[in-house]
């Protein structure tokens, strides 16, 4: 294993991926942001300098376990203070897993302004072979900067303002661009790592006349499964192997198409680019075929079914279950008439001091008491070794892609869409008796409108573990909670807070001890 060091200066860059010029958050003067590439076992050091001037920042490494390094997880006011303008901050952790991940800003919707990129961990013992590897990112793109859109989304519900509707993206991008040419040679096996870095839209993805064999989802190797289309919610990843054609007689189109289920027609501009094409270019002297038409949600429901994937290790359900936590998901107007999301009727509001620092500095006899973390962060304390089932019931009519930091959870049960106007479908009381033999594992799962899911994980990663909807608008609307995972063991770990972490707090007058 080696140490990979990245020095990233974060700053505004002028970009126009769909022809419309705006500012994006770039790295070292470049946008799209670079890929973070490493091998399993490597130590990664990322030195971040915030040169944005007008915004704080922070980086989350999506799907990374952070065993013993919770202070490097990245969400602002959870495991660190946001990095103030002008400051430098160091992330330093070791990679203990393999596969396809990504990194993104974890403060105030900033990743929707472009601060997002692939994170790929190579595995010398990967259980499949291929000749070439290509990373493809899918993303939704807005013409207006995120802070304005958040303000609009969280403005009081009002028919003219449509304050309750999520802002609709202006465009879809592949590799943060339109019409990307992917050079392809005949007769080869290509590993495509496909990452949905969208802030809102789920995406359908398809190669024209090339089947995909799915071999990994969210960092978990799966039994190979042939499909011709995949569906990725915000934050999900799929690795697929594609055999190229035996000759270079022609070129082929590739399409990513946003699912518009949650786009309120009242706020959807007429001219959005709902889909984007890229091209498999076998021979650049030959013409490109016509673009593919946007993918129609209604005829493609089948590609949404990720329950068909089975982890390659056939891991059985963890057990016995020692804790069952019912979570009710809701959206409703608060007293100020803002559209707020909640778990068990609590909307998340960030604390005054990052939750991790509260846990580290608490007296040992209080650290397991949820009250010290503040009711507005929706804290749930979990003891080391506990096997937890989250029994999630969605009282909202929209589907939500839920993400648990630092774990790959097992999907024990999931319903399809519930009735349009509720009430939601109920979790079968005997769900434990119906567990799949080898449940799918991943880190981001779609739960359908008025539907439910049961997900299971083992408490093995002391630290503060966020659980939230990965639609960035819904994070801003408070659809987040924090697990205080094994705080007693966390205190014994003696985590080292680099000076840059203390400085970030101090510069903003946030007092931390220890
Ligand atoms: Cu990619 Cu808190 O998440």
UniProtKB/TrEMBL annotation:
Domain annotation Plastocyanin-like: ranges: 10-125, 132-268, 350-488
UniProt-listed SUPFAM superfamilies: Cupredoxins (SSF49503)
Metal-binding listed as a keyword: yes
Single GO cellular component term: high-affinity iron permease complex
One of the record's GO molecular function terms: copper ion binding
GO biological process, one term: reductive iron assimilation
Record's keyword terms, sorted: Copper, Metal-binding, Oxidoreductase, Signal
Pfam families named in the record: Cu-oxidase, Cu-oxidase_2, Cu-oxidase_3
Family: Belongs to the multicopper oxidase family.
Record's protein name: Ferroxidase
Organism of origin: Hyaloscypha variabilis (strain UAMH 11265 / GT02V1 / F)
């Amino acid at each position: 294993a080696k140490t990979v060091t990245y020095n990233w200066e974060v700053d505004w860059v002028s970009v126009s991926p769909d022809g419309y010029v705006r500012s994006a958050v770039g790295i070292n003067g470049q946008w799209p942001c670079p890929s973070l590439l490493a091998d399993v076992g490597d130590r990664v050091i990322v030195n971040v300098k915030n040169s944005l001037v007008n915004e704080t920042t922070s980086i989350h490494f999506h799907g990374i376990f952070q065993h013993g390094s919770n202070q490097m997880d990245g969400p602002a006011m959870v495991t660190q203070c946001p990095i103030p303008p002008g400051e430098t901050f160091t992330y330093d952790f070791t990679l203990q897993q393999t596969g396809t991940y990504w990194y993104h800003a974890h403060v105030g919707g900033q990743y929707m302004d472009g601060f997002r990129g692939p994170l790929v961990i190579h595995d010398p013992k990967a259980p499949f072979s291929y000749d070439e590897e290509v990373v493809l990112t899918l993303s939704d793109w807005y013409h207006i900067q995120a802070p304005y859109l958040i303000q609009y989304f969280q403005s009081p519900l009002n028919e003219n303002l449509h304050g309750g509707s999520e802002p609709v993206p202006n465009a879809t991008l592949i590799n943060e661009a339109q019409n990307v040419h992917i050079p392809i040679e005949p007769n080869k096996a290509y590993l495509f790592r496909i990452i949905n870095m969208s802030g809102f839209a789920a995406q359908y993805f398809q190669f024209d006349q090339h089947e995909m064999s799915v071999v990994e989802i969210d960092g978990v190797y799966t039994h190979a499964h042939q499909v011709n289309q995949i569906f990725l919610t915000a934050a999900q990843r799929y690795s697929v192997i594609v055999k190229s054609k035996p000759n270079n007689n022609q070129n082929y189109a590739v399409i990513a198409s946003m699912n518009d289920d949650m786009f309120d027609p009242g706020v959807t501009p007429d001219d959005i680019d709902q889909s984007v094409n890229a091209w498999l270019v076998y021979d650049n002297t030959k013409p490109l075929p016509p673009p593919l038409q946007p993918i129609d949600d209604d005829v493609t429901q089948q590609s949404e079914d990720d329950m068909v994937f089975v982890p390659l290790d056939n891991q059985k359900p963890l057990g016995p279950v020692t804790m069952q936590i019912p979570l009710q998901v809701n959206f409703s107007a608060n007293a100020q008439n803002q559209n707020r999301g909640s778990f068990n009727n609590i909307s998340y509001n960030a604390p005054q001091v990052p939750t991790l620092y509260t846990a580290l500095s608490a007296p040992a006899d209080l650290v397991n008491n949820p009250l010290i973390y503040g009711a507005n962060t929706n804290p749930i304390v979990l003891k080391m070794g506990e096997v937890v089932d989250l029994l999630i019931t969605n009282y909202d009519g929209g589907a939500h892609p839920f993400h648990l930091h630092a774990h790959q959870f097992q999907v024990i049960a999931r319903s399809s869409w519930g009735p349009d106007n509720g009430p939601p479908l109920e979790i079968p009381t005997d769900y434990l008796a119906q567990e799949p033999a080898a449940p799918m594992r991943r880190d981001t799962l779609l739960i359908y409108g008025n539907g439910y899911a049961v997900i299971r994980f083992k408490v093995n990663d002391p630290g503060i573990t966020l659980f939230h909807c990965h639609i960035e608008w819904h994070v801003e609307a408070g659809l987040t909670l924090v697990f205080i995972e094994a705080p007693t063991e966390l205190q014994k770990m003696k985590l080292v807070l680099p000076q840059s972490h203390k400085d970030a707090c101090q510069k903003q007058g946030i007092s931390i001890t220890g």
